[in-house]
């Protein structure tokens, strides 16, 4: 294990180097805005060397624009998730980084690995490792032979000796916890084990960059969950620059150092998992990352109103009233039976569900809007909520968007 880390460190040494957010009950029984601050991680990234730097990349397929002037920088040793719905452009961007697709001609477009222009280099010359959704293992080869394949087919001048290949493959199989399965064939492995073989094979050739395209998409939910945690631990051991394509929000938020949210061929927002989840800059990001309750209100003179609920919104101080959309996540509510003067609104409980890690309470407001609230199980038990009763909902956090902000 130590020698593998040393190999990656040696490789690295050889290479050239917000949206408004509200917090409930802060002052004077109102929800007050706090401007977003630049995180320590963002400040550190400003000084880190870039492994991957793509600038002004566009790609069209016939009349369909898959990417529209996309620029992205990825730090050395960082695991970045490209997250978005189908058709958002994430896989196309990954394929262009790899060299499997060429971007549209543009004098300003560039693709750089460690400050070297690789735009005209082939896939092999870019030294990338791939892990795909469907494993792509050779069925007639054992696990050991699959992992060794990329090394054995190298040109004689760069091919390691048989002893070096054996040593490297054994270390990688130990790293991915499959040493005892080296003589098995892919058909004798589970889906999760096959994907770990594919990852070991990608790492065997000592790539500069590791690219993972929906690697867990073909696996069932429970296996995916275990592999996500395993991939995160593996990355912390080897620290190879990695790009993960996924449409699974939970996967991206759990595994990645940084999440790049894509939509309609562009990057909507990028940041740490905490930053994109808690400080969404657009309505799309707010709605795409986790469940939300959506309410429609108005903004005017620094205030946003939602029925009887009023929140401070200094981003809009105009006298002219405008429509606004207010978002509140299910876990960002308190439920009380009585009003205590703080910002709240009444709602009637229609159903409860407590079989899980949290209790889910389904409610309906006076204007027939549906609301979902999630409570810790002990709090739900203490409240002893009953279907049909009316309670008061106290938002701990709210995010307001007006049409011009979400474009």
Instruction: List low-pLDDT spans.
Output: 1-39
- Return the structural class: alpha+beta
Shape, principal axes of CA atoms: globular
Q: N-to-C terminal Cα separation, in Å?
A: 48 Å
Helix content, binned percent: 25-40%
Strand content: 25-35%
Main-sheet strand order equals: 2-1-22-16-13-14-15
Round the Cα radius of gyration to an integer and report it: 25 Å
For the secondary structure, the number of strands is 22
Specify the biggest β-sheet. Answer: 7 strands, antiparallel
Mean pLDDT: 86
**What is the count of helical runs?**
12
What are the main properties of this structure?
12 helices, alpha+beta, 407 residues, six-stranded mixed sheet, single chain
Polypeptide structure, described:
The chain is of the alpha+beta class. Helix content is 29%, strand content 33%. Strands 2-1-22-16-13-14-15 form a 7-stranded antiparallel beta sheet, with no helix packed on it. Strand 18 (345-353) and strand 19 (358-365) form a beta hairpin. The chain is globular, with a radius of gyration of 25 Å.
What would you say about this model in short?
The protein has 407 residues and is an alpha+beta fold.
